[in-house]
Amino acid sequence: MLSGFRNAVKSDEYHPSTMEYHYSDLCLPTEHLLAGPYAAEFTPQYMVPNHDAEYEVRSSVLVDGGDRFGVSAVVFDKFEELIWMGNQGGHVTSYYGPNMQKYTSFQVHESEEVRDIITVEQGIYALTKTALRHQIRRGIPKNTFRSDNMTDMQCLYQVSTTKLLMGGHQDKLLELDLTSMKDTVIPIQEEGCAVLRSGGGSLVACGSADGMVALRDIRTPKATEHTFRAHSACLSDLDMQGDLLITCGFTQSVGGAVAEPYVIVWDVRCLRGQNTGGSNAWSLQTRSPPLLLHFLPAFSGRAVALSADGHVALLHLNAAQEENQSVFQVDTHSSVCSVMDVSSTSQALVFGDQAGHLHLFSPQHNHEPVFNNFSRATEFADQVVGLPFVNFNDTNFQFSTVPLPQLSSGSKWFNVLPEEFFKRSFRRPKQVDPEVLKTMKMQGPIGYAPNPKTFKRNQMPYVEDTFEDLAAAKLNESKYSPQPIPKHYQKVELRYNKHSPNDIDLENCNKTGYPGIESTLPNSYCNSMLQVLYYTPPVKSTLLAHTCAKEFCLSCELGFLFRMLDTSGGAPCQANNFLRAFRTVPEAAALGLILPDRGPDSRVDLIALIQSWNRFILHQIHYEILETRKKETELAVLTQNSSPPKVRAGNAKQARSLATPNMNGQYTEEYQYTELEFLGPSTEFEQEEFGREVREDGWQAREEGAGDTEPAPNCENHELPNNRQVEREESEISHLFAIGRNQLNRCLKCNKEEERESVVLACALQYPTGAPREGGDARGGFVELVRASLAARRSTPAWCENCARFTPTTQRGRIVRLPPILAINCGGPHEKAYWMKGNQKDVPEVVRRGGSSKPCRYGLHCARPGCRFKHPDRPASASASSRRSDSRESHCVLPHQLLIRLQADGDVIINDKTDQSPTEPHTPRSKPDKNKKPVTTQSEEEYTLQAAVVCVEDNPKNLVAYVQTSKEDSQWHLFNDLSIVPVSAEEVFQFGSWWKTPCVLFYSTPSASLAPLEEAVAS
């Protein structure tokens, strides 16, 4: 009904595309017809919800085509439990029952909207702008009526079973005879007829667009019984029940037409013979201007008023009090509520909006509303009766229950064939594509790989019964079988039996004579690093010679553990004392190195854990040795002098070193862990402020001088720089592992440069994040990583004295000292893809389709495997072979020896020793003077891989260690807790397997005074 009203009133706004008149913005807008500047916006009015509303929403559905068209007509079926809906696209859909299950859906016109729908016994009549369509309820069309008199039709009214009355925005009514399908023209004086309603008697009310209402007798519709003006501007809607007529509309004001916030009630008995009905009508105030009206057929004197914004009010026509109204809200999804209808039982209300939704309301306690009192059964499609559906593998089904047709003479069914025809045989699938195995990444027992797209979707190839396919499958099975994890790399789990000896299991695990370490205690993940430190003779001799009076000293416990391993005679040992002391160190707990008693969780990152443990243990041993040396010196001074020396206030670090010993030799103030700092004062005490900073990665740094404060970078190289030129304090550990460098910091704001010395005990690899470096070594992937990590250049916020705030600062390191033992942390699990490049050296390269002749942007320096672009000065096959060889050598293979050359400017050049020319001289290593600032001179060192800690990606993950037990014979052994087996050098240096990732590497020089390990481990 609303769509008719939208086209009912003439205004100054004329849309040439639709050739129709519309309301102005001051009247009722039409969002589906008006666009651009003609579209108006609705502001939802505030209304207090009434919890005592009689009706509540029962169902809400998006109609067919609701995403494109709004609802233009809706009506309850008078004969069945159906709701009929028509939209602006000419489509009609019906819904069954209170759950609004879709029943039928069909198109009645290709473009015109459905203006009105009436239901008859044989079907429905759907009215569009220029046509009347008759269809049965199942959706089959019966006929379509068109006439020259139908120019802009709007409403329908059923006079009898054989006559229909049609009105529209034109100067005539049409009376249609359904038997002969001929129309009769009835001229009218009003400006069209937008609505036709009757109250059950002989009068029918015809509402025009200009606010006039004409009462006609349905027996003689050509004559007008009475005509009066209901509203001064335009009419919105009307309805009749008996002798009562209700209307709503717009009134004319100074600014234009304004919606009236009330409903006018007329008594048609008092209107006959009078020119005006002003004294025979009364109004009912509503909270929101009404747009649509409808009487409740089951109640006398009650009506429903619907506003455009979805406010619904139940009116009592005989009671004018506003508080007697029952008000509720329809969720119109911020659109205009356009149509409404009431069922004949008044148990259901249906509303349609321009967003394409239908909303069904029913009384609060009536969840199964009935549309009609005596509805007939709705006809549904018959169920197709077919053969029973049975699974092919169902052995319990009785096939005799299915009737079989008769066969001709001589034919047999399959159930009477011999048994050999029913033998089960499965097709064997082909082997996995080598390209899949090449790019596969394992997550526990599950492998993930990108689809090579060599087969179609949902296609599984099978091996045919031919000799060629069988031979090819056998060859691929032997050549490209996935590499399993060897047993001696897996976690050793020995179940001790107290009733019988366990010597047999231990003998199977270790037949080398080297002692192992049990992993039955918590925090035993560090057994691999303990084996590496034990088989490093300089570290071992230092710890064996260390003694102090501290209660929980990790250096002492490591020395005791090494002494026990020397005297064990190859029997397994336990690190109980060391792990007990390790748990008491608060810095270890702060770094997350102490695991719970239940053992390591599968979610714990063992790679990052063992690298943090490596940095922690080197720093801890260094400071414990240094602190013991200082206390011994102070004790000697106190023994010689009768009174302790005076200490200046302000230097807290030196004040702690002057603690007074107790009677048993221990000191009253315990040592507290700080980060590595070699530049502390030794003889003089300078008065300056002592600061402390807790860095983001958990390391605590005590810095001297307020000007040295800077935020710690989120990297593995933990260092503490200082500007003061003082004597450097070293221990045996710092002499072996310390990497000295000058760090130049330049503020990007004021360009102020500041140089400071710093020392680190472990070098952390910094992997590239972008394209490969131009001019870099094509073969030296790992070598280039070490070079870039030693002389690291990065940008980080730091404190600037000149700017007096944290500013972006570039940091560049200049190496001044190379250590005898180079400890390298290889990064976390995110860099595993770096070590996987260049793997599968035996798998032939797959020729990719769609190759391009476009030159590669990296040219000869391209290291991308399977690059499809053109590379100059080399053929395609040679390029692919070179890339595969270079990638394999530079990524997944560790160099056995490194030749590190220290330049005069602090930069380093690292090459594989095999790549170095034999004619080049070897310059001995230059050591800086202790009493002077280190002056960088050109020198070089030869480093040889001594040990490596590896993470095995098993379930659970495991940490093992490679140790070179004999330098003369290049003999390597794998230490896996109690399992110790000899391995080849190729297995140590190759890291292309998916289950093996390097964690910590130890490279040593001949100057480290490494004695043969056979003599070191001999008791």
From TrEMBL:
Residues 515-1006 form the USP domain. Signal peptide: none annotated. Residues 694-705, 922-932 have a biased composition (Basic and acidic residues). Residues 694-719, 871-890, 911-940 are annotated as: Disordered. Coiled coil: none annotated. It comes from the Eukaryota. CDD domains: Peptidase_C19. Pfam families: PAN2_N (PF20770), UCH_1 (PF13423). This is USP domain-containing protein. It comes from Loxostege sticticalis (Beet webworm moth). The lineage of its organism: Eukaryota, Metazoa, Ecdysozoa, Arthropoda, Hexapoda.
